[in-house]
Design goal:
single chain; alpha+beta; 2 domains; four-stranded mixed beta sheet; 6 helices; 6 strands; 25% helix; 24% strand; binds zinc ion
């Protein structure tokens, strides 16, 4: 079962995803309402509810600023997700991390010094900078904030918020 439910604040701002169990708890406690339901019903002795896909809090929930606007800690997985697993040098699918300023020459593992690369480009670049290797970046590295990771989780649920009128269409 697609167990992740999109959670919107009372302002309709997306604030995260919750397990189905947790989303149902919000509904049962009347903290939230269903904005979009999947087919089928959840039935137990005490409840009968449509299966929620998107729930909206009835009251505005204060989100700690850091939960959305902190910098994510750097991780390899985070870099691959940020770059959507595309090689920065040739745009083919990539699954390795390249240090733009090479790690062997003091380049650090940070959001702005790492980028996704395919095995071939990573090998071809070796211990050189993109300039030295004559391999320009086709896109730039950037810092990843918590909000972006949350929005990727929302996207992964398959719910189209734009279709619900929640987010402006691009
Ligand atoms: Zn490549």
């Amino acid at each position: 079962m697609a167990a992740q439910v999109v959670v919107l604040n009372a302002t309709l701002e997306p604030i995260g995803v919750a397990s189905l169990q947790r989303a149902v708890a919000f509904l049962v406690k009347e903290r939230a309402q269903i904005m979009l339901a999947a087919d089928g019903m959840i039935r137990s002795n005490s409840i009968e509810l449509p299966v929620p896909r998107v729930v909206v809090f009835n009251d505005y929930v204060r989100i700690p600023h850091t939960r959305l606007y902190d910098k994510m800690p750097w991780s390899r997985r985070g870099v691959l997700d940020r770059d959507r697993r595309r090689c920065a040098y040739c745009e083919a699918p990539g699954a390795t991390i390249d240090h733009i300023h090479p790690a062997s020459r003091g380049g650090e593992s940070s959001w702005l010094n790492t980028i996704t690369a395919c095995v071939a480009c990573n090998g071809a670049k070796g211990d050189r900078t993109p300039g030295e290797a004559g391999m320009p970046l086709r896109f730039e590295p950037r810092v990843v904030w918590r909000r972006e990771v949350m929005m990727l989780a929302v996207e992964a649920t398959g719910v189209d918020l734009a279709e619900l009128g929640v987010l402006p269409r691009p």
